[in-house]
What we know:
alpha/beta
Amino acid sequence: MVDFMMHFPKGFLWGTATAAHQVEGGNTNNQxxxxxxxxxxxxxxxxxxxxxxxxxxxxxxxxxxxxVEMHNNAHRFSVEWSRIEPxxxxxxxxxxxxxxxxxxxxxxxxxxxxxTLHHFTNPxxxxxxxxxxxxETIQHFDRFVRRVVQALGNNVKFWCTINEPMVYATQSxxxxxxxxxxxxxxxxxxxxxxxxxxHALVYRGIxxxxxxxQVGFAKHQISLKPRFPAWVNTPARNYVRNFFNYAFVEALxxxxxRLPTRKIRVPDVRDTLDWIGxxxxxxxxxxxxxxxxxxxxxxxxxxxxxxxxxxxxxEIWPEGLFEHIEWLCKTTGxxxxxxxxxxxxxxxxxxxxxxxRSLRSVWQAINHNYPVKGYFVWTLLDNFEWAEGYDPRxxxxxxxxxxASQERTKRRSADLYGEIxxxxxxxxxxxxxxxxxxxxxxxxxxETQPEVNLPxx
Length: 457
Ligand code: BGC
């Protein structure tokens, strides 16, 4: 049988990603806590994040051990602004010390830390003052980031300024699914602009304190196709793509932020990227719908074929990674990290295939010479999934985690991921063992059938 190996470059970062509010537990001073406790209807079954994965109680240590068992060499996590700066200008040294210990725990395990500085949550005092619709938040964020970098910078090289600014802006201010639950196009655009300016400002702040830091941000990209007939719906697809996928990144390159409502000159934001992060999950079908004025007459649905995600998520189409890597690398000219990629899959029936197809796509991009430097699975263990709370359908972890008992259970994908990380490669043998029925399709052009002895002529 012919063997086949998809090798990854030397020094490739293999890890998982988490976010403070989703794993720490006991975060009661941010806008998400307020949202959870002021439902009804804000979170699935009015659940609250509660103890989450109890990382603030110290369980991150055992979970980092799990990352080591999977032969990871990196971990991406976020620090919680509302813990570090509970009141304007008042910094909590104990909270900073806890994060310093987390960083130390990673180093002890040879895991390279990547720290996200904003992952959806704001301290209540920021939210009360208008959150990211208020331009003053930019300066406040800068002061917070400087404090964090002063405290942790000696031991952290990779900084991710903001997680998914377009998701934050649209979910919070257009679609109303995140706090403060608004449907306001003007505010959405303001938030995008302020986050863009904040990214650039803190990029410079971090470099001032730590010139050799590697600073980027995580961009969520969605794959999009126009609904039939394409000649009618392609403009709708382009509209969503240009706004959601392109505008923020293009602004960093050109100094012009092209929003659907207006164009804003932002020359100062140029040259503020050392790397670009890609978060990728779903593909959607886009069309015009005159009955949907609230979403600018644009409708996003799921393709009828393909693997469907739960709820109103899209189609699970791992091969989309290639197009996003290609576009982001070509547009920015920077190294790229897949800062999140994963699938909601409680019984782990899809995850091995998802992981294999995703990494095949990443490998393909690497072979086109796109500088992909690392891959972080979303996520290490099941956690608080924002508006989906602890909905049993939305389990993204390589490990299951029961928030009530705090019991962790390894899913089979964790073994597969461990094998891949250990080998720094995805091999035909792994594919045959983890998805035996699909091996032939996944290894095109490779003879995987047993040899047949033809009868003599
Ligand atoms: C977010 C994560 C979230 C994941 C799965 C990403 O967009 O950054 O916080 O848990 O999607 O929905």
